[in-house]
Design goal:
By secondary structure, the protein is mostly helical. The chain is built from six helices and no strands. The protein folds into two domains: about 80 residues, no CATH class; about 40 residues. The chain is elongated, with a radius of gyration of 27 Å. It starts with a helix and ends with a helix.
Length: about 130
Amino acid sequence: MSLARNFLDTEYRVLRAPTRLMERRILARLPEESFIRMGAEGGLGLLDTLAGRVVGNRDVRQRGTALLDGVQASWRARRGPNDATQLRTPAVIQEDRRQQSADTVAKVASDPGETVPESAPHKLAAVDEE
């Protein structure tokens, strides 16, 4: 390592010392899925990863990567296994609305005793305009 990188590595260790203390004393007491803990560990993980790359310190970079991996695992655990299927894009939402409106109109057309809700044609037109 060059002299400049050694200096930056030492500086980073000195600046990071209080946050490591906070990490051990405060964050360790919070539940792993806590937003506060995930946010703090995510920020520290980013800092460690970046600093490790800049100064060429593999240990610091690996510590940062481990923190980020832990945050991602906690985030997935917090969201649950089915959450990814519930994420819908605006295009999917619009298509669902269009299909529901078309189904309503088709149902009314096939059943002469059924009346069209006043909002159905307007909803279909509104979905087409979006």
